[in-house]
Each structure stands twice: as structure tokens, then as C-alpha cells.
Amino acid sequence: MKSIKGYIALFGVALLFSCAARKEQTKNVSTSDPEIEQLLSRMTVREKIGQMTQLNLDVVCVGEIYKLSEPHRIDSDKLRKAVVEYGVGSILNCGGHAYPRAQWLEIIGEIQRVAMNDSRLKIPVLYGIDAIHGANYVMGSTLFPQPLAQAATFNAELVEKGAQITAYETRAVGIPWNFSPVLDVARNPLWSRFFETYGEDPLVCAELGTAAIRGYQSKRKEAFVAGCMKHFLGYSGMRTGKDRTPALIPNITLREIYLPPFEKAVNTGALTVMINSGEINGVPVHASKEILTGLLRDELKFEGIAVTDWEDVMKLHLNHRVAENLKEATFLAMEAGIDMCMVPNDYQFSDLLLELVNEGRISEERLNTSVRRILKVKHVLGLLEKSLVPRMEDYPDFNSMASRNAALTMAQEAMTLLENRNNVLPIKKGSKVFLTGPAAHSMSMLNGAWTRTWQGVDTIWDDTSMLTIKKALEQKEVMVDYYKGVEVNAALDLEGALMRAKKSEVIVVCIGENPSTEKPGDIDDLSMSEAQLNYVERLTETGIPVVLVLVENRPLLVNKIADKVDAVVLAYQPGDYGGQALANVLLGEVSPSGKLPFTYPRYNHSLLTYDHKYTETLDQQFGNKAFRPQWEFGHGLTYAQLSYSNLTVEKAQGDALIVKVTISNPSGYTVNESVLLFIRDMYASVTPHTKKLRQFSKVKVGPRSQVNVSFTVPKEDLMFYNAQGVKVFEPGSFEVQIESLKKEIRVP
Ligand code: BGC
């Protein structure tokens, strides 16, 4: 349990930071490497361990952990114990819900004031937070679509821009560290954190994940936060789909599927990494020297901070049961290679690590290795050299119109049109629309978890100035009759709803699931709730065209209704501007252009990803029809009836492949088209995938125009891991595919 729901918001009028206070936070520690070494040489063992300790904000606030007194404020005795006595180097999170900017500035200001004035070495605290789709713990910040929706845009530029804005609005409250992006590749749709990922493909996760890192760690000093690659490694590969349960991952799969996003992010300069709470092949990752030192440090050459996840040292003892007590758990994690422990609710890690050092089981040199990394990140973030806590007026562009427009653009580009039978969409102006379903008038369903609170379900935090789908549609030239009709998990008033539905020309029914993440989001069945399925089915029996809108954390099964409705739009969790984005798409003011970043399953027990093996396509008649998802990876319609032609493949120098294709747009719409290039290795010593995404790009195709797109694929991109775990290229035939066009070519 890490947050408490149901708090009544009682925001005090927070004090702004005075200039005098700001002056106190001037340069105290110099920054070059020799100076970091010198600082290190002045530190006691206790102070070094302090730098490696990360505490929850609750520990230093008035009240009890998870039961803070409102409004949350620092308890100065507790803070002094942490920062002065224990020399704690990092604090995280909020006490269960978001704060207004002024309150954040007061809290962060006080923490840094004590660190800079009262601690012996005057080293500032590295504050970290989960700002995963905007600065979601800062009231009034710009909320973007969740990462899975961002992935549906296949647009790295938009993702980078969104991350830059998030960084700006996070740094605006003096927080320089963001626990984002999630680089876990989503291979199991049951997983409660599916929406936090960039989907099921390693390349998409790598490209968009590193775009996010570039955005967080951009050159704009005032908008620079450290990104955090999560969760190293294999977290999303759990067998059952339940959060933090065991994964069995063969080496080839680990390297081919789970590693690439992290590898690319390390090469992009990501400053920090968070460890996977789960286990791989029986070894909890927090205790795996092979992964945390062999792979992360020796092979990938990562030099930043490796922070544990929440209570994960303790969990080596309590949950994983690989350590008899907490002290042995601390020893194991230190041996494996962690730098900082997200303890986060007590001082046991600090006390036990001190005992281990005093007993000679952990060397001081081992501490130095981690503390050096921590101080370097503090230096890179500018914490050691300049004023730490900004003033409100330093951030005039907080939630600016430009930022909000960026969130709207992203939400619009994410909307994925999965079906559009008889061109029921776009809805004609002047139509009578019956708008219904639990997602039609809910901001929390649009935003999902990590929105103002951890689970994001508590509607008291909704920004009521934002437009739900209902409010957004009411602003359009249509006549809207709204009636909820059904709850997420229970019937409401079917007969009443049907009576109203029959008076309309088109029904828009918005269903899905309540926000959740991590353990609270575990499910036993991937099906959409019976209540909602029955409701939609009955609506389709009216004979009036039905547009189904899905607002969900993960792809809930809708096979019972998918063929009965006329159109399906997957809205994902599109954020604060999702209502507007959807309304713009439904009315045809923009064409949808999102494409599925995962395979939408049809059945509970057929959860194949698009890059499955050939044998997995074999059906009972020995044909190739066994792979029959509801909708395929990369699927997404537009209003423009785009067509692809002239696929050519040539070999260039070094046997790189030059692939060209033409896209024609006969319509009056502009489409931001995602062009996906798949190349299939026809025969290989390790069974090849039936399809594999090798590159993608985003092109604007104007009304009644043609665009030529060209890709250059170096031969190395056709390599794979062989049975010995070595990355190799094997000559032979390759099939190139864009949309339904295919060409085979031999590569020597
Ligand atoms: C999650 C992390 C998150 C951390 C801090 C953990 O429970 O797994 O993704 O960054 O909490 O909130």
C-alpha cells in the first residue's frame, strides 16, 4: 500500500519563496570530477550511506505514513533526522495526491534549505517523482495521453515534445528527476501496466522511449530533468500477467525483445535506471549480479544511478524469500549492484548497510562507486551549483496554450479507428446523437492511473474545466442526448437508455475500465465487463448505427460486440484533451491516424503478439489461419482511403536495403500517416518471426496528393541472436512488407 485514497483536499495558501531564501541556496559545492572526489573523501561512511538512501515524502511530513495531516507539510524534526542525522540523499513522491505549485515549492524549498544550510556537507537532495504523462502530481499541469496512446501516434517528435513540456512543468516545482519512461515491452495484455508502455514491439519502445529521454534531458537547462529507464529488465515478461510475478525468459528473448529499448536509452545518455521488482528464471532482479552488473554495467556501460523499486530490498526477504532477513537482503542487493535504495518508509536500509560495512562484508570502496554516480547525476542536473528552487514567475509557460495544444495534437493523433462500416463516421453535422456509457462523462477514465493520485480513480481530483467526451461533443454542431445507461461493472437502466437511443440517428457508446495500475490493477479475465457488453449488444439491436468508443488500460476483449457495431474507435487513455480530440475525430474535423502499437486479442487464451512464429499460425486444418486477433498490430483506418503502391526494394552499398513506396491520398483530408516497414527473414537457424518491424516513419500526406517514402535498412538490422546467444547475420531471402505490398529479395 503506498497511497491513501479519499483525502479531502485542504490546500493551505502556501508561501512563496522569498529572495533571501533563494540566496541561501547558492553554490556550496564545486562540481568537476576532482571536486566530486574531494567531496567523497570528506564524507563519513554514514553520509555515504545517506546518499544511497531514498525516502518517501511521508517520512518527513506531519502525520503518519499514508495518513498525513492535510494540507501536507514538512515536519521539521523528521526532516532534520533524515537529512541532517542520516544524510539522506533522495526523497520521492507526494503524500498520496497532487499539490498546487505553490505548495510544492514550499515543500521542496524546505527540504533543500535544510540540506543546504544544516547538513554538514551541504549536498542538496535529489527529489524524484513519477511524471509519466505530464507532471501529473502537480495540480494544473498539462496532462498528455498515457504512453500507450502516445505510441499509437508512432510519432517520436510528438513524444519528445511532450516529454520536454513534462520536464519543464516538473522542474517548475523544483523536482529534477522523473521516474519515466517505462521501457518495458508489453508482451502480455493482461498486465495492469500495459498502458504505461509503448506497446509490444521492441523497436517502437526503443524509438519512442529514447524520444522521451531526449525530451526530459533536453538542452534547456530550466527544463532538464533526469529520465529513468524502467524497469530493468524483463518486468513485463511475467508468465501470469499479474504484476510482479515470475518471468521465465530465455536469453535470446531477453536480448531480442526486452533489452533493445534499454540499450538504446543508455546510448542516448539516460541518467538513471530503476530495477525490475520481479524475478527472471528464479532470480529476483534486485539480487542478480548478472543483470545489474554483468549486463547493465560491464556490457551496456551504463554509468548513471541504479535505484531499486519500492521496498524491493525488503521484498527480497519478505516476498521473494531469497534472504533470511533484511540484513541479508541488503547484502544481496548491494552485491548485485544497486546504487540507491527506494526504502522508502524507514531507516533500516541505512542502519543495516552501516552494520555490513562495519563488519567488513561491504567495503567502503563499494559505497564510493555508488556515491560517485549519485553525486555525478546531482552535478549534471545542476543541483550542486545553482539555486535549487525556482519561483512561480520563473516558469511563465507552465500549462501554456502551446503546451495544451501539444497534448491535444498528441491525443488526436492517437485516436485509432479500428472499424468504420458503411462510413458511419464521420458523424454528419446536425445529427441527433445518443451519447452513453460510463466513459462518456468521466475525466478519470480519460486520464487513467498516475493522475493526481497513484491509482487515478478518485474523481475529486478531476479538473472540472477540462472537457469530458460529453462536454466536447456538446460544443459541436450535433444534438447530444447524454444518458449514462450502464456502469463499468453493473447494469443501470437498460430500458430507459433504449427508449432514448431509439430517438437518435447515431449512438456513440463509450465503455472501458476504471483506472488502475500495479497490483491493484491485476485481473483474472481479459474480457470487457458483461454489463457493458450486454448493454452495447442491446443498443445494436435498435437498428440505429452504433459507434463504439473504447477507453481502457489494456485491450479488453470485445469479440461479442465487435462485428455488431458499425464503427470502433480506440481512444486508449488520451488524457485531459482526449474528449476534445475524440470529438474532433468523430465529427471529421480531423482524420484519425493512430495505429495499434499492439495486437488486439480476440480470445482470452490466444494472446499472440504480431511477431509470433510460423508454427503459431497453423490451424486445425493445417492452414495458416490460427493467428486471428481482433485487430492486428499496426492496424488503423483513416477517413482518407489512402492507398499504397510502387513498393521497390534495391540493394545499396554494403547490402543495405533501399525500400521505397508511394502513398496516395484521393481525399480532402490531411493525414499524418505512420508508415511501418516489416522485413521477414524467410529461413534462419533460429525459427524466424512471421513479421518483424524494422523501421517506421511519420509522413504528412496532404489532400489529393502523393508522397514518396524511402527507408534505408542497414544489413546489421537484419541480424538476430542465434542459439549460442551471438548476434549474427545469415544470408538468404527476406520478405519486405509495407501495408499489403510485399517483395522478396536475397541478401548475400
Ligand atoms: C513502481 C515504479 C514507481 C515507484 C515510485 C513503484 O511501485 O513500480 O514504477 O516509479 O513505485 O512511485
Q: How would you explain this protein's 3D organization?
A:
The chain has 748 residues and is of the alpha/beta class. It has three domains: 4-384, TIM Barrel (Alpha-Beta Barrel); 415-615, Rossmann fold, CATH 3.40.50; 640-747, Sandwich (Immunoglobulin-like), CATH 2.60.40. The chain is built from 22 helices and 27 strands. Strands 13-18-17-16-14-15 form a six-stranded mixed sheet. α7 packs parallel to α8 and α13 packs across α14 (348-358). The model is unreliable at 3-31 (pLDDT under 50). It binds beta-D-glucopyranose.
A few lines on this structure:
The protein has 22 helices and 27 strands.
Features:
3 domains; alpha/beta; Rossmann fold; TIM Barrel; Immunoglobulin-like; globular; five-stranded parallel beta sheet
